[in-house]
Model the fold of this input.
Amino acid sequence: MDVPILRQGEFLIATIQAALSDNDLFALRSKLFEYVVRSRALGIIIDVTALDILDSFGTRTLSEIALMCRLRGAETVIVGVQPEVAFTMVQLGLTLEGVTTALDLEEGLAHLGRRSKLLKR
Amino acid sequence: MTEDIFVPINSDLDIVTARQNGRTMAAELGFQGTDLTLIATAISELARNIVRYARHGEIHLQVLGNNNGKRGLLVEARDEGPGIPNIAQAMQDGYSTSGGLGLGLPGTRRLMDEFEITSDAENGTTIRTCKWVRSGL
Done:
């Protein structure tokens, strides 16, 4: 299951559309990082609205993406974590610590927009 | 009574199949909302452990009933892998021998109502977990 990545100005938007296998998640990590390097993006949004679970592997991979991109100067925002998924993640012990989250795509873009303004001052 | 489901686990794609089967079976049993996510996530963790540590195994899903009229879902993960040398250690948050987060087993225990492990080097590992349908009180 390939995850499409769109460019919107200086940001990238990756929208997960269906359940992902571990290998799909690895593929997303490589592709997204490659795009970040190539496009010099300042921010990335990963929309996980369609995911019905986020287990330890999925969460770890999202954290890794955020850390790698941060080293390239880009901030990652995870948007659309469903309420049941959030509840389960915390029970499992997963916190996505150090990764920015926002309610939805709109809020995520607003956050990145504010950050990018600050950077350009 | 719904029939048992056996999902062979041989690759990461089977992890997705197992959790989707589990979610469907749990929904048919009457589980709702967050419980469906808890069960699907627990199955995902157990199936991944099979792929990671034993390579091959099976997830067995079975409807349970008890004499109080309570119904539940049994999720049993079986493999003939190397076994878990130290179960107490493996049940600690943050302990991992594979570079993972070390939350798979202790986390799964928190997601489910009952949890039991048997493991040795000869027979591999069997983890039986169960969640009961909450009565709508």
Observations:
- Helices of chain A lie at 22-39, 56-71, 83-92, 105-120.
- Chain A touches chain B at residues 19-23, 52-57, 59-60, 82-85, 87-88, 91-94 (CB under 8 Å).
